[in-house]
Give the backbone structure.
Amino acid sequence: MVVSPGRLRHLVSRGARPAQQRGGADLALATRRCRRAERGYTVTGSRIRADAGQAIDRAHTLRFRFDGKSHEGFAGDTIASALTAAGVRVISRSFKYHRPRGLLCCAGNCPNCLVQIGDEPSVRSCTRPLEEGMDVRPQNAWPSLDHDLMALTESFSRFLPVGFYYKTFHRPRLLWPAFEHVLRHAAGLGTIDEDTPEGDHDKQYLHADVVVVGAGPAGLSAAAAAADAGARVLLIDENPEAGGHLRYHRPDDAASRRIDDCRGRLEQAGGTLLTDTAVVGWYQDHWLSAVRGERLFKIRAGAAVVASGAFEAPAVFAGNDRPGVLLGTAVQRLLHLYGVVPGQRAVVVTANDQGWAVAADLLAAGVEVAAVTDERDAPASNEDVEAVRNAGVTVLTGYTIGAARGKCGVDEVTLTPISGADGGRRIRCDFVAVSTTWIPSAELATMAGAHSRYDEALAEMSLDGLPEGLSLAGRVAGPCTAEEEWLQGERAGAAAAAGTSEMPSGGSMAPAAVRTSSLVAAPESGRDKRFVCLCEDVTDIDIETAVAEGYDRIELLKRYSTIGMGPCQGRMCGFNGIRLCARATGHSVQETGRTTSRPPVKPVSLGALAGQKMEPVQLSCVHDWHVEHGARMMVAGVWLRPEHYGDAAAEVRAVREAAGLIDVSPLGKLKLTGPAAAVLLERLYVNQWQNLRRGRVRYGIMCNDEGVVLDDGVCARIADQEWYVSTTSSGASAALEWMEWWRQSGWGDGVHITDLTDTHAAFNLAGPQAREVLQPLTTRDLSNAAVPYMRARRTDVAGVSCLLLRLGFTGELGYEIHCPAGAGAYLWERLIEAGADHGLKPFGVEAQRILRLEKAHFIVGQDTDALTDPISADAAWAVRFDKEADFLGRRALTRVSEEGPKQRLVGFRTGRRVDALAEGQQAVVQDGGTRPEIIGWISSCRFSPTLQETLGLCWLPADLAAKAEAPFHIYAEGKMEEARVHHGPFYDPEGARLRG
C-alpha cells in the first residue's frame, strides 16, 4: 500500500477519532485500504492513479499563480481542479456577506468558483482549462482572500435584511451618494479594465436540418439516427468532449465504444459536432444562439432535439455554503476526470441512489467515508449500496444533514433524523458530498415553447406541450437508465429527421430510486445561515420575510429578494426558491409556478454580442473595376460601394462642370405587373399614382400606418399594367417584404411583384455633358424634347437593352440607366470610354451625398428616424390627401397636417467653412448668460466645394424652422458656431440645370 505522509499519520500516529471508536472501525479502515492498494489503487497526496477516463496529462506540468501564490497542475486540468489538488479550499468570497466559498458543482453552474484572470472578470474556474503562467486572482476580497475585511459585514447581518436598500440610507437625502458609493464598492464581483485592448470577436451563421443540443448518450444517439436518415445534423455540447455524464462516471469500455460509434456515424454522414459550445438562447422558428469562446453562432434549425440532461442543485441546511460542501457530481468529476480527491474523510448525504454511487466511487479511490445518510427509510439494494455496506461505512437511513461547521471549511457535520426525533449526530469530516436534488436542464425547451409542470412523484419539474419540430430525449425528459437514454435518442433523432416531435413516455426507473429530496429545507440545526441563493446570499429566512412583507408571488419575490438574479440566473437556486415560497404561502409548487427562462442561459461576453456581424456583403457587377481604379470601398447597408476614388471634391466638381458616373446598382428595383398595381401603390405611398401617364416618373414616399417614413424612391409607369419601382439601397429588402405583405393581405389582387435588385445593374450618368456622353451610344433621340425631365424610355445603349430614367438627384442633367447585371461591367466601361473626351469622372457615395445635400434632398435613415413623417421632413407637397384611395398613414398625417409638426427638417448654412461641424451635434440657442438650450440636432452636414461653405440639414422647432435666415448656434467641439436657417435647395433653387 502506498499512501501520503498525511494519510499515514491518520492511520498510525493519531489516536482513534470519535467515529472510529465504535466497533474497531480504525482497523477495518486500514484493512479496506490495504485491499484497495492490492487491487492497484494508489493514493499519492490528493491525486489518485491515472485511469482511462481521466482528462489530464500527467506528463505535462503547468505552473500558475493564485492569490499571489505559486501552484502546479497538469494539462487538461481546470483551474479549480488544480487548486483542489493543491489543497486550496477557499476560491472566492460571497457577494453580500463575503463568506468564504469553495468548489461546489464543478460544472460552471454556481458562483462559488468565479475568479479574475488578468482583465477578464467572473471566470468560472471549474470549467476554464488551466494554462501555463496563468495569474489567477480571487474576486470580491480585500486585501486578500484569506483575510477579507468586508467579511465583517456578516456581523451586522441583522441590520441588512432582505430588501434593506429599499428601506435604509434614504435620509438624509444629501448623504445618499455617499451611501451608494459604499454599497457599490462593497458589492460586485470582478473588475473591468477600461484600457483593455479590443479582442477579436466574430459571428458565424449555421444551418441544419436537425440541431441536437447535448452530446450525452441521448444526444449522441439522436444525432447519429438523424444523420443515418439523411438529415444535415449539427450536434452541440458545452463540454470539451462528447459523452455527457458518462465522462465522469466509472470507466466503461462498452460505453466508450458506443460513443465512438455514434460519432463515427455522424461524421460519415457529414454531420458537425461543436464542443465547448453553449446554446444560450432559443427564439422563434427554431432560431438558436450559441457561444464558443468569443464566437457567437446564429443557427437556424429545421427541427431540434433537446438532450441537455439534468444537473444537481444544493440542499438547504445550516452552513451549506462552506468550502468543502460539494455536490455528488462535482466529486465524481474530480475523481474520474482529474484524478483529484477533495479531502480525506467524507460524509455523503443523499435522497436517492445517486449518492450511493458517489460513496462507492470515494471508497474505490481510497477516501475514508465516515457516514452515508439517506432520507429514505429503506433504500433498495443495488451494487453500490452493497459495496458501501460491505465496507463497514456508517449508514443512517431516515437522516439528512442539518449543519456543516468549520472556520474556513468543513470540520464536522450534524446529521439529523427527518422526523426530528433527536438532536442528531455529529461526525468529523473534511468534506461533504450532497446528492439530493436533480433539476432537468429545461431552459431551452421552455424558451422554445414547451410547458413545465411539477411532478409530485419525482419532486421535480417536467415538460409537456412541446412545440412542433422539437423533441426531448434523455434525462431532461425525466429519469431513465443509460440504456433508455440511448434508445430515446434514437427515436428522437429519427422523429426530428422526419419533421415530427418525440416526447419520451418515461423511463423504467422506480421513482424512489431517483426522486429528488422531498425536504424543502433540512430540520433546523445550529445558528448558521441556510442559503438558498449562493449568488446573492439569500437565505430561507429572507424568503420568509419577503413573503410576509407581501411579495408572495414568485416573480415579485425574485425582484425583491434578488434570488436568481446573480451569475447562475436561478439555475442552482430557482427550484429551492419556488418550494420555499410555496411553503411560506401555503400553496402547492404547481400553483406557485416558476419564473420565466430568458436568454442567455449561460454568460455571454459583450464582445461576442458586439463582434463582427458577418452579414453577407453584396458586390455589384462593377466591383472589380472600382477596386482596380483605386476606389476606397465602404459598407452601405448590405453592399460594398465606392466611397470615393481619391478626391471626393474633384468628383463633385466634375459632375457640376462636366459629367460624372456613379454605380447605383444597390438601389432596390421592383417590377409590379397586374391590373391593380396602381391601386396597390396608391395605398402604400402617400403620392397619387392613378393619374400618372405611361412613360412618366414620379417621386414617392412610403409610410407605415402611423405616418412614419419607411422608404422613398421613384416609380415609373412603363405600361398600363407595368410599373418599375426603385427604393433606397438599405431598404430594398424591407420594402419588398412590406409590399408583399400588403399584396397578400388583399390589397394587390392580381398584382405580381418581381425583385430585380440583384439581377439588374444601375448607373447614374449626371452633369451638363451627360447628354453628349450618352447620345453616341444609342440611336434614341435624347434631346430635352424627346426625353424630358422625369420620363422613362426603353432603348439600347452600346447594344445593351436598357431602361432610361431622366432624373436629377444630383441637381444636374442626369440619366439613370438600368440594365441586366450580366452586361453591367461591359456597359460601365463603354460609358467611361464615351465620357473620356468630355471630362467624365467616376464618383462615389461621398460625392453623391454632397451633391444631394446641395439640393437639400433628405436620405431616409440618416435624416429621418422612427418618428419622422413626410410633413415634418419638409415633404408635405408629396402627401396627397385629395386622392380617392385611402393610404397607410392617412389618419396620422391628417392630424399632423392640422396641428402642425413640432419639429421640422430644414436646411442650414454657415456662409464659411467650418470643419468642426459634424452630424449628430446639437443645435442650441443662448439668451444672455443663461445656459444654452438644446433645440435640435444636425442630421447631415458637409462642406460644399461648389458653394465654398459648410451646409447641411437639421431638425429645429417648427416656429424657428419657418423663419428663413433665422440665426441659431451649433455646439461643436466646445465652441458655438453660428448658422442660419435656409429654405429650399442651396444650389440651383429653380431647377433649371436638371431640366435643361
